[in-house]
Write a structure and sequence with these properties.
Blueprint (H helix, E strand, L loop, with lengths): L3 E3 L6 E3 L6 H6 L1 E4 L1 E6 L12 H11 L1 E6 L10 H4 L10 E7 L12 H6 L4 E3 L8 H13 L4 E3 L4 H4 L4 E2 L2 H6 L3 E2 L2 H17 L3 E3 L5 H13 L3 E6 L28 H12 L4 E3 L7 H4 L16 H9 L2 H16 L5 E11 L17 E10 L1
Parallel strand pairs: 4-5, 5-6, 6-7, 7-8, 8-11, 9-10, 11-12, 12-13
Antiparallel strand pairs: 1-2, 3-14, 14-15
Helix pairs in contact: 5-8, 8-9, 12-13
Length: about 375
């Protein structure tokens, strides 16, 4: 007999599609399915990284119903024609499109925002490629405001962002690796906040990693600016000390890099407080892209399977986790609850390599929280 399981935030219950032991049924809870605001599966253009089938598998395993796809594919999603090529995924998982802010993500010529919105773009994005020219970025934000589209930006100073492969700290010097300064993010956040204030556009900052950037976001939100921010789930569990083992593990070659321990603590506190949301930052990489010395490995990591467990493990707060992975992202994109994830918030779990799936930076780390099932809304 299938169990009736409680629904998060209410007295209601709903049946499961899986058979649970009495012990698991007593702990399990249905929560609103998650939304990834930063998903970069690599198709079209990079078939070795992932396929629609493997992406749907990863999303289902991680409890995600909606994935906002990055425009940084081949070709770049900068026209309505390219937008229409977004591939459907196996239900209940849906792939939504974020269109490019500038043509080719080159930071020079603005895209046709109105046409992209009509074609179904849910947001505009810099595709992790910072727009170097502040005048171009201001103009893009003004157009986005007129068409009521949120803008996703990875805050960074373009020149400093090109420097280094790990956090600029004594550890970088000890390992003999070039350091990427925290200042690149802090400068980028300050600029984004100033332009959000000047234009009134809805701005979401992705990939926050430093404590000082969090402080800037807190001040902007207290001011009442339409600005939100998120951090990758792995950044709540890992910091630069994960590299301090002499292995130069290319799975930890990420950009922006993992920051310091105090930064990680600030990120966790900000998620608990509702200041930051959380993204899976799903960037699968083919084995041949990672099979290099650390500096030459392509940055990125899969993240859909482990995001819920990483966030819950770090915060120890199911409510904060649901807000960060589901409620917040839905509010930004104007999405209703598209499905429900059945989770066991107390079960231990260690991510392991999955057949047909790209490596995850969190593989081998003991986390807390398991997704048992994903059902349509």
């Amino acid at each position: 007999m299938r169990a009736e399981v409680r629904v998060f935030g209410s007295e209601a219950t709903r049946p499961t599609a899986v058979v649970l032991s009495p012990q698991v049924a007593a702990r399990a809870v249905w929560v609103p399915a998650f939304v990834d605001l930063v998903c970069d599966p690599g198709f079209p253009g990079f078939p070795a990284r992932e396929t629609p089938a493997s992406l749907a598998d990863a999303a289902t395993a991680g409890g995600f119903c909606e994935l906002l796809a990055c425009p940084h594919v081949d070709p770049v999603v900068d026209t309505p024609e390219h937008l229409s090529r977004t591939e459907p995924l196996r239900p209940p998982v849906r792939l939504l499109a974020a269109a490019a802010l500038t043509v080719g993500l080159r930071g020079v010529e603005l895209t046709e925002v109105g046409l992209l919105r009509q074609a179904g773009a849910r947001a505009l994005s810099d595709g992790r490629v910072p727009v170097a020219d502040s005048l171009v970025l201001r103009n893009a934000l003004e157009y986005a405001r007129e068409f009521r589209l949120p803008v996703l930006l990875r805050p960074a100073d373009a020149a400093l962002d090109a420097v280094g492969v790990i956090h600029d700290s004594p550890l970088a010097a000890r390992l003999g690796l070039r350091g990427n300064p925290a200042a690149t993010e802090e400068i980028g956040v300050a600029r984004a906040i100033a332009l959000c204030r000047a234009t009134g556009a809805t701005v979401h900052l992705t990939h926050l990693g430093t404590a000082r950037a969090v402080e800037q976001v807190v001040a902007a939100q207290r001011e009442g600016l339409p600005l939100t921010a998120s951090t990758p789930a792995r950044n709540l569990v890992l910091d630069e000390l994960a590299l301090d083992d002499g292995r130069y593990d290319a799975r930890l070659r990420l950009h922006p890099p993992l920051r310091g321990r105090a930064d990680r603590a600030a990120l966790v506190d900000a998620v608990r407080a509702g200041v930051l949301w959380v993204c899976a930052d799903h960037q699968p990489r083919a084995p041949e892209e990672k099979d290099h010395e650390f500096e030459r490995a392509v940055p990125g990591s899969a993240g859909l399977r482990s995001a819920f467990a990483a966030c819950l493990h770090a915060t120890r707060d199911l409510g904060a986790t649901v807000r960060a992975l589901s409620e917040g992202p839905r509010s930004l994109l104007g999405l209703p609850v598209g499905g429900w994830a059945l989770v066991d918030p107390e079960a231990p779990w260690v991510p392991v390599p999955a057949r047909g799936q790209a490596p995850d930076a969190l593989e081998g780390h003991e986390l807390r929280g398991v997704v048992l099932d994903l059902a349509a809304g």
